[in-house]
Amino acid sequence: MNLFFENSTRTRTSFEVAAKRLGADVINMDVATSSVRKGETLLDTAMTLNAMRPDAIVVRHHESGAVNLLSQKVNCAVINAGDGQHEHPTQALLDALTIRRRRGSLEGLLVAICGDIMHSRVARSNIHLLQIMGARVRVVGPPTLMPTDVEKMGVEVHYNMKSGLKDVDIVMMLRLQTERMQGSFVPSISEYFHFFGLDRAKLQYAKPDALIMHPGPMNRGVEIDSEVADDLDRSVIHEQVEMGVTVRMACLDALIGGQRNQFGNLA
Fold first, then answer.
1. pTM for the full model?
2. Is residue 184 over pLDDT 70?
3. Are 180 and 123 spatial neighbours (Cβ–Cβ below 8 Å)?
4. Which of 46, 221, 247, 263 holds its CA 20 to 30 A away from the CA of 98?
């Protein structure tokens, strides 16, 4: 079951494709037309779905920690497809796989994650995983879009693209998470693009063969210019989408591809 409380194209569709390629039946629950709109709580929804004996529930929710809470109330596997500003683990896995396919290893690579670090669950998951895999991580963006405790994450912090992209192997751009912002974090879109949007001129600061990444959806002309986003030699954005299906197939198989448990479900 796909249970998405937030909009999604890549993640929900790739989980559906992944499950179907493994031979599973898939239910996409439409939250907008569900009993959630009648006041049903997340936990009541979880208990209702649990009574139907699914083998796995893939959950995206706007509140950090909601997926972990739900996982404690059901008897099946639960996969976090993004919870608030907290984590997006399968995105980090697919990003790591994309890099490894192109570079052979993540060990010793220098990765710059650029843009709205404060509101990005993708940034947090990537920081954790990339460091585990031996990469060095920089975060680049305006001070207003940096978490207050960013230094504790073990990353280099840069407030301009020139120093932040200097000699990096991977440039990972993030969109402005306007749906999570309360107040003004940048003076204007045009000024943000001028200073922090990735274009051909700023890309020159990175290594000549640096790869360009973006978890999507892209806002062209805001955090990335179309010329570099569509660069067939250096952009791996579409490859990330392809690897998303592969990684999510692996996650589903690892979690529910074993022996049947006492409930008759795959465990």
1. 0.91
2. no
3. no
4. 221
